[in-house]
Design a protein that fits this description.
By secondary structure, the protein is of the alpha/beta class. It is built from 19 helices and 15 strands.
């Protein structure tokens, strides 16, 4: 009962992410491995994150000789939700090579849940739909007993040339009952070397929750669904203690869609860390409206929250409403003010190209960024994911290209206000304007209080002289691309 786990995300196949040099172990993959190990299976891991090619699995297959290959993507990594074709092709190749050696091939991923027929055409035997641990455990038990898989919930498979889709499985409600991830399967030192070389510190990832109850109509939830389930603060603190003891990370990425949504959770988490005298630094993802509730920001700051990424998305209320975001532009301003006041770094996710977005809406977003000057920005264009209302609105416009090849693709795949070249250039322009504005702020700091200026501020300030002409040129190019878009539509 030998099971080899892997996943389909190769950082080196995603140039943008590989340039960041911030790799994280495949958390969901090693958690599923821990679940099977608790059931008595012999488990091993082929971690693709830092590999060069999917064929590197071949010597591992020869050595391990697994009965089952489980391609279990990390559902806690937002990049895997995007169903990038580079990663899909890698999964196909690993499945095909494993099948040649007689393995039963099982896949659990966002992409496979949406396109299981594509995976069956590349030697995959079973696709797990939704949350995977219980389905995988039951599937292997049934297969080992040579029983029929017809009653295994959450499963898709091919039978007598036809695709069968079993009923969905309910999500796990007691996350504390799950074992901690099998961290020992990961070559932690290979991750540490990259982080230390490029950033001077080492970060690890952990998840405290699953799912998201909010209704943003462009956000797909193929694995954990629209429900929100949380581990207890004590369970999370226990994992933090284990990671600190065994691997000594300097930093944590809490990779939840929404961190600390449950009332009182963040406060209890902070109290436990304080009682145990555990001092950590970490980053999270949240919503601006949640951050304005009660003493949430105080507890986050006290517990070590260093950076908070928020889905600002747009500076236009019209666009936020069209997205069913459920937040207000003024909440973005107020939450940003409070985070800065409490010494927490602010990071914005921004999204351009949503249906109905005009130049005025784009300008409102740029004004918001320049006014608030978050510490980081992540810019994308609207991406239609199957299973979302947004996808249903534009699916008839999608042509042959329905997925990005990597996260830097930034291709608009539907009929938007402007053409695809415009949004590519807009991405560069907004980054440039943002950096130019930060440079102005640093130069102002230099003039008003030169003794408080540090090297980072000086470098940011000097960069202003690069971005002034650059953004001017980009602005002219954007105007031309805007006119080109309109001429094509006419």
């Amino acid at each position: 009962m030998n099971v080899l786990f892997t996943h389909s995300y190769f950082y080196k196949f995603d140039g943008k992410q590989w340039r960041f040099k911030q790799p994280y172990p495949p958390l969901a993959t090693i958690l599923a491995a821990a679940v099977l190990r608790n059931e008595g299976y012999s488990v091993s891991l082929f971690d693709t994150n830092l590999r060069d090619d999917p064929t590197e699995i071949l010597p591992v297959l020869e050595k391990v000789k697994p009965k089952y290959l489980v391609i279990y993507d990390d559902g806690f990594n937002y990049l895997s939700k995007m169903c990038l074709t580079n990663m899909r092709e890698a999964a196909f190749r690993m499945a095909e090579e494993s099948k040649k050696l007689g393995c039963t091939v099982i896949v659990s991923s966002s992409d496979a849940a949406d396109h299981y027929e594509k995976y069956f055409n590349h030697d995959v035997d079973y696709v797990i739909r939704g949350e995977g641990e219980e389905t995988l455990k039951e599937l292997l038990s049934v297969l080992e007993k040579d029983q029929n898989v017809d009653r295994v919930q959450g499963l898709a498979f091919r039978q007598e040339g036809r695709i069968r889709i079993n009923p969905s499985r309910a999500v796990i409600r007691d996350l504390d009952a799950l074992p901690l991830p099998a961290w020992d399967l990961v070559d932690i030192e290979s991750y540490r070397r990259i982080w230390l070389q490029h950033h001077g510190y080492f970060s690890l990832n952990l998840a405290t929750t699953r799912g998201c109850p909010f209704k943003c109509n462009w956000c797909a939830k193929p694995i954990y669904g629209n429900r929100y389930t949380s581990r207890s603060p004590s369970h999370v603190v226990g994992e933090i203690e284990l990671l600190l003891k065994n691997y000594s990370p300097d930093y944590f990425w809490m990779c939840d869609d929404i961190f600390g949504l449950k009332p009182g959770w963040v406060q209890e988490f902070n109290a436990l860390l304080t009682a145990k005298n555990i001092k950590i630094r970490y980053k999270i993802q949240s919503r601006v409206d949640l951050l304005l509730q009660e003493d949430t920001l105080d507890s986050l700051a006290q517990s070590g929250a260093d950076t908070i990424w928020v889905g600002a998305e747009s500076g236009s209320q019209k666009i936020l409403d069209a997205m069913d975001k459920g937040t207000k532009v003024e909440e973005i301003y107020e939450a940003t003010r409070l985070m800065k006041q409490k010494g927490i770094r602010v990071a914005f996710f921004l999204q351009f190209g949503y249906l109905g977005e005009t130049q005025e809406d784009i300008d409102a977003t740029i004004r918001m960024v320049c006014a608030l000057l978050p510490d980081e920005v992540g810019i994308s264009v609207s991406y239609p994911l199957p299973g979302t209302k947004f996808y249903d609105k534009v699916k008839d416009q999608l042509r042959e290209k329905q997925n990005w090849s990597d996260s830097d693709d930034l291709m608009v795949m539907f009929e938007s206000t402007f053409n695809k070249k415009y949004y590519k250039e807009l991405h560069r322009y907004v980054h440039g304007v943002y950096r130019k504005q930060k440079g102005y702020f640093s130069l102002k700091k230099l003039l008003t209080n030169p003794l408080r200026l540090n090297y980072k501020d000086l470098r940011t300030g000097l960069a202003t002289f690069y971005y002034i002409p650059t953004t001017f040129t980009q602005g002219l190019k954007l105007k031309k691309l805007k006119l080109d878009s309109h001429s094509v539509k006419v």
